[in-house]
Amino acid sequence: MPDLTMQDTPAQTGxxxxxxxxxxxxxSRLHGDGRGTVARPNNKRGDPYIILDPWRAEQESxxxxxxxxxxxxxxxxxxxxxxxxICEKGGWRLIACAAGPDHVHTLLExxxxxxxxxxxxxxxxxxxQNLEERWRQPRRPDGMGWWVQGGSTKAVKHPHYxxxxxxxxxxQRATPRSSGSRSA
Length: 184
Fold this sequence. Notes:
Helix content is 32%, strand content 16%. By secondary structure, the protein is of the alpha+beta class. The chain folds into 2 domains: 6-27 and 70-171, Transposase IS200-like (Alpha-Beta Plaits); 30-63, no CATH class. It has a 4-stranded antiparallel sheet with strand order 2-3-1-4, sandwiched between helices. A hairpin with a 3-residue loop joins strand 2 (93-99) and strand 3. It is globular, with a radius of gyration of 17 Å. The termini are close together. Residues 1-13 and 179-184 have low confidence and may be disordered.
C-alpha cells in the first residue's frame, strides 16, 4: 500500500480537492435490511442510520422494478481496470478504487471548483457505458440501470481520513494492486 499523505497531493494548495465517492448497485441495499442505510433527509454527519426494520425492508423490496444488481467478480475487475481511464477522461487523478459486489468506492483528486456531487454522475455514466459496451447490451437484460440514484461524496480534509480511506478501499479490491502503485 502506498504511503500517501495530504502533503503528497496538491489538495493543500486549495487548487484541488480529494473526494471519496461511493455508490451502490441497484437494489442491493434496502432501507431497513439491517446493514444501516442513510435516508436523504438525514444525510449529515452524526445523523442516525436506518437500522433493522423488516417491515420497511419489505416495503422497499416490493417497490423494486427488477432484481438487485450484484456485480460478478469479472465485472468488478473490469470496473477497477476502467476507473483509471475514466478519471483521466474527466481530468481527475485517481488515488484508489475498489468495486465490491454491491458498490464502488473511488478516491480521486479533482479541481477544487468541481464538487464531488458533479463527478459522481459522470463516473456512473461512463462506467455504465463501458459495462454495456463490454457485455454488448444496451442495458442490463431486464432493462434497468446498474446503479442506485445518488451515493456518497465526502471531501477528504484530513491526512488520517486519507490514509484510512486508501487502506479501506485497497483492501476491498477485486484486483490486488501492486505495492508500488500510486494510482488504482
